[in-house]
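Encode chain A's predicted structure.
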Amino acid sequence: MSGLRRALLAGRAVVAGRALLAGRALLAGRTLLAGRALLAGRTLLPGRTLLPRRALLAGLALVLVVLAVGAALLAGDVRGWRDTFARDDAVFALSPAEPGWRASTAFPFGAAASLLAVAGDRQARLAIQGFRLLDGVEGTLDSSSVTQSQRAAVEQALAMVAAGPDRRRASQASDLLGILAFGDIAQGGTVDQGQAEASVSAFENAVRLDPSNSAAKLNLELVLRLFSAQGVRVGPGTGAGTDSIGKHGAGGGTPGSGY
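Encoded structure for chain A:
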């Protein structure tokens, strides 16, 4: 009996050992399959996002190209405005009626003009151009062709520049307003008190805005001497100098200096 029992116990141990080994093998197999599945999943996930990533890179490249083209166009427009002002300023000195100070641009929305803030400079140049054209006609046989509205338009354009933030341009415009006011006195042959005060006030305003404006200083000195010689008393600070028009005097030269 003891031998049989031993054999039985030995058989159970063998069976138990085989079962244990089988269990371990099964667990190992399941673990291996799970690992393979995990690796397969990791490989698959990047493949699923591959197309969106390429699209993102392509979109980014397109944006960079658009920005580069836009920057090139904007730089070209900036050069165009600078060249236009330099060229038209030179033309103005020879033929005041020709230039228009208008550049041809490629970038939309007037970005280059806004970047350079050309609006004020162009406004001043056009106002001075109007003064020069008016000054060239008045006092000639063709002066009858100058309408009151044309004279008023020139005065208004200069007054807008004189009221602007750029003190140098404002000084030049105010000086021209003084010339316009004094011109009516010179044409009429008699001194009108209101015109005299308007011209002196405009010249004083020009000197106050820009003390380095030698033309305004000279014009102020000349009219004060003339009025004094004719017994006309003109007090300081008598007005804004923007209500009368005329011609002659210094200060209607080439506008500005470009960019």
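Confidence is low (pLDDT under 50) at residues 238-249.
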